[in-house]
Amino acid sequence: MKPQFIFLIAIFLLNACTDSFVPDLQDSRLTRYTNEGLGNVSAIINDTAWVGLVENCFKCNRTTIYDIEYYESNDSLVLILSGKQNQENWLDVVFSLKVAEFQKLSDLRDQRFILGSGGNFAVLDPSPQGLLQNLNGQIWFRDIGVVESGNGTCPYIAGTFGFEYNQSGQSKIKVHFGRFDFKVCNTNF
Question: How far apart are CA 145 and CA 143, in angstroms?
Fold first, then answer.
């Protein structure tokens, strides 16, 4: 092969990013709701699509769309979903949930957490400074399962969410039609 051809292939491979966006049939701005560990998260935030996709490329800053941690000392589960609005800046949707007597990931199957009560909350990060007021909504872990992965099997989490709140000095923040579906390999579960 000619050196120029090899050089062009190398440049393409180093800069190419792929994603797993499968549009929703009702609203093509959102990812389709799935429960297969496809690595999709999306929602409508104040009438603008927010989409999180795994970017597989050499120069990408993010290679995952989620972080999930369980803190036994205070019975809390923290879930951070990362995405972009209008393909621009990253914005995280952060959930902190009270989960007493949590033993394994499958305990979350079909669990709904009411946000704004019982120590459960959600917030956008980064968000304008100010006190959160009147938070209400829910996150629903609709399905927990297992899928084949490169080295065997891997659990996945799939569900939906929606919430709204006022922030002092700011307009209402409304997050709706949220959905998530991702594998949780190599975590503390």
Answer: 6
pLDDT in tens, 74-90: 889 999 998 888 777 78
Q: What pLDDT is attached to residue 134?
A: 81
- Residue 90: name the closest of 98, 82, 79, 81 by CA: 82
User: Are 155 and 146 in contact, with CB atoms under 8 Å apart?
Assistant: yes
Contact yes or no for 83/65 (Cβ under 8 A): yes
CA-nearest of 135, 151, 136, 146 to 183 is 146
Q: Any idea where the domains of the chain sit in the sequence?
A: 18-183
One DSSP character per residue, 46-74 reads TTEEEEEE---STT-S-S-SEEEEEEGGG
Q: Label residue 111 by pLDDT band (50, 70, 90).
A: very high
